[in-house]
TrEMBL record:
<dbReference type="GO" id="GO:0003677">
    <property type="term" value="F:DNA binding"/>
</dbReference>
<dbReference type="InterPro" id="IPR010982">
    <property type="entry name" value="Lambda_DNA-bd_dom_sf"/>
</dbReference>
<protein>
    <submittedName>
        <fullName>Helix-turn-helix family protein</fullName>
    </submittedName>
</protein>
<feature type="domain" description="HTH cro/C1-type">
    <location>
        <begin position="11"/>
        <end position="64"/>
    </location>
</feature>
<dbReference type="Pfam" id="PF13443">
    <property type="entry name" value="HTH_26"/>
</dbReference>
<dbReference type="InterPro" id="IPR001387">
    <property type="entry name" value="Cro/C1-type_HTH"/>
</dbReference>
Amino acid sequence: MAISIELIDGLKRFLRAQDLTYRDLALRLKLSEAAVKRMFSRRAMSLQRLEQICDVLDIGLVELSAEAGRGRAPMAMLSEEQEQALVDDPALLLALFLTLNRWKQADVQAHFTFDDVKWTALLVRLDRLGIIELMPGNRGRPLTARNFRWRADGPMERHFRLRMLGDYFADPFDGEQDVLLLLSGALSVAGIRQLKQRLGEVAREFDGLLARDAALSAQERVGVSLVLAQKPWLLQLFHPYRRSQG
């Protein structure tokens, strides 16, 4: 059957928000990429197929219908006010993390101390901040892109530098899933630019892996954080030996 352009556009936005390509969707549906492209271009798919696509995206038909009616692209960045609200309340930040990673309420309550009232209250606050949309059954639909970025020198980045960076590096990186590389050297401007581009590619690969593994249960996933950074920098302990450039 042919489905509306709005529904197709809604599906496309959900795919983009989760960094899924037609090829990724085809693999999940056990179809050829050409068949998936044809379904979307012709808007020809059965209700059963539509439900299968929604299952891959972990959304309901009601959620898809709401997105089709809204017709706006997901946010690539939060506002200063939204970030500050998350910085001010760690429980709210955790709730956003869990929602972005598609944790179901039962999994949340199995791993954290949020009862029904507290969890609902956190979702309501995220909804009122315009970061998620609270759906039936206490499902939170993120209004952000899955790979949204924190503001440069915004509340969250400043909070991380001042409060969280020490915590991140406090324990040794000696576990099976850990890695810490401390690299220093002198590069040309072109070399630095190339390395910066490569770090961006690693970040996009991380986003893609998040999207790929999002359909797994909470028990099959491990929370992981990457810090990717580069800057012209000399250790503070070297500063006394620097010759004045004046």
